[in-house]
Amino acid sequence: MPVAFATLLQTVINGLLVGGVYGISALGLTLVWGIMDIVNIAHGELMLLGAFACYFLFVGYGVTPVVSAALVVPLGMATGLFPYRTVIRRVVGRPALASLLLTFGVSLFLNNSMLNLWSPTIRSVGWFPGSLALGPALIPGTRLVAFAVAVLAAVLLYLFLSRTYSGRAIRAIMQDPEAAAAMGVNTRAILLLAFGLGTAFAFLAGSLLATVRPFAPQFAVSYAIIAFVIVVAGGLGNPMGALLGGLLIGLIESFTGTFWSQAYTPVVVSLLLVTFLLVRPTGLFRGARA
Amino acid sequence: MPSRLRPTPLLLALAFLAFLAVPAFQDESMTSFCFRLLELVAMTYSLNLITGYLGYVDFGHIVFYGVGAYTTALLLSGGVALHPALLILPGGAAALLFGLLAGYPALRLRGAYFAIATFSINEAMKAVVLNVDWLGGSEGIPLARYIRLELTTAYYVLLGIAAAVAAFSYTAVRQKFGLGMLAIREDEDVAEALAIDTTRYKLLTYALSGAVAGLAGGIVGLAHVYVSTEYFDVGKSIEMFVIMMLGGAGTALGPLLGAFLYFLIKDFLILRSPHLHLVIFGLIIVFIVLFLPAGLVGYLRERSGRLRALLE
Q: What is the pLDDT of residue B85?
């Protein structure tokens, strides 16, 4: 039996809209990874902090997730400064073994702190902005809003990276840290800024994802893996690649769910990751360092 | 060469002899506690081979444990009647094979890329086991119908596995194979330039450490007469990493000392505040990476010149 057009359209809509959120999560990861060569294993935990911020603001104070999306960005920025200043900066330039184990320790700390404080209960932000009809399919309002906010954030980041001094300095360090330093870029301050931005995007992505689907501290690993796969697919240090990669993974996940089983998503994602790494290690799109 | 007293193998031998005496002189609860301790000791030695000595961070090491446990359980429930000590051998072999198959593509990756790939390989295997009917799905495979294994028997088998991998860790670094591993950890490109067949070394280390974890998974599954997706759970991976880092990654005594230290700290913390211990262990790992990269063994070695000569 041919697949109904409505099912197909719905699958595409669901995948693309959540893919935008995945995209900005990967943007946060790729900024940090690309500029200081540190893979932040705690990225999923940072996303969950954003999710909890959105949840508590909504449940406790009735703050609409659109407003809290704007609030979690500075909150994430400020939160990111703390781990960077205390520990992360000490492993910049050290072998992957050190930074992987260090951020693993940070993730253990954050994850279990969340489990202790807020329990492993699966929560959802009960925000229902309705939905729009598009032909035979429905566009869920939460996903549409999340997608719109994600695109807006990505555009702002793009403008920041291309139009401002600090943004250009970030890209300069990504391409060649020594040359950038020789040109008078204050590497220490820019790295701090980049880690803050990375954390802010993780917070934002987490807060948006919390409106789309239920969340709990123990989901951090799966959040992080999806972001890793997107960064690898999109090319390390390539913001546009991260965004397009996000849409792609969103679609793949959604098609896996419709035509096979949601439960097999990790299998598909894992196969994709290994394939990308082996066949196109620089990503589908050219990486910043390629 | 005059034979000098070598404290590291002596300490290892004494510790494992003490373990050997436990079932004879202690009650069942003590034996069962030591069984859990030995399980973590064996698993951490296995992780230490690939991560401590070879320098490849394997966040998904627990996948071998699961593969071993499930292979053993499937054979048993499929009607293969063998002594349990023999039944775990195919489990180890399956883990070895899995290591060769998964390692062949994965080990072409380095650093963070390898670490992430192992993470996701484990998640994928867990999803497969959870969703394939003949693998028991979310209900796992109960084994009590097929076997009744004395805890003491399982204990001695596990002790054998732990002692063997500890002995291998100690002797390997005195031979070409172990030195090759260390060379790869320090600088893989230089190692390759020095005509070390890095691909073979890496693949062998990965598969061998996997086989050890597979054997351990098999015997633990038989002892608990039940296997489930818990055998792919990242929780145990976390414990292994904490123990390895506490004791000293890339040292022969590290996993053993680390396991004792881990349980000491864990018990101490649990008495004061349950569930908080993993928060503290997260901080401890951060501290170790920054200030004591070689853990307790490294700390003791730094403290005094004499200990440096004694501990490995």
A: 79
Range of the domain at A243: 5-125+132-279
pLDDT one-digit tens code per residue, A183-219: 999 999 999 999 999 999 999 999 999 999 999 999 9
Extents of the domains making up chain B: 7-310
Query: Residue B111 and residue A96: Cβ atoms within 8 Å?
Result: yes
Residues of A whose CB is below 8 A from B110:
96
pLDDT for B1 beyond 50: no
Cα of B97 to nearest chain A Cα, Å: 18
Among A100, A109, A115, the residue with its CB nearest the CB of B115 is A100
| Number of compact structural domains in chain A | 1
pLDDT of residue B61: 96
Reported as half-sphere exposure (CB side, CA atoms, 13 A), residue B246 has a value of 25
Q: Please report, to the nearest 10 degrees, the dihedral formed by the alpha carbons of residues B219, B225, B227, B231 taken in order.
A: -50
Residue A199 domain-assigned (yes or no): yes
The CATH code for residues B7-310 is 1.10.3470
**Residue with structure tokens 């900005």?**
A24
**Spatial CA neighbour of B222 closest among B90, B27, B76:** B76
Distances (CA, A) of A206 to A28, A53, A105, A224, B195: 11, 9, 21, 11, 48
Give helix then strand counts, H and E, for chain A: 11, 2
Instruction: Give ipTM to 2 decimals.
Output: 0.89
Q: What is each CA distance from B25 to B28, B53, B153, in whole angstroms?
A: 10, 36, 15
pLDDT at A288 over 50: no
Q: Do B128 and A267 touch (CB under 8 A)?
A: yes
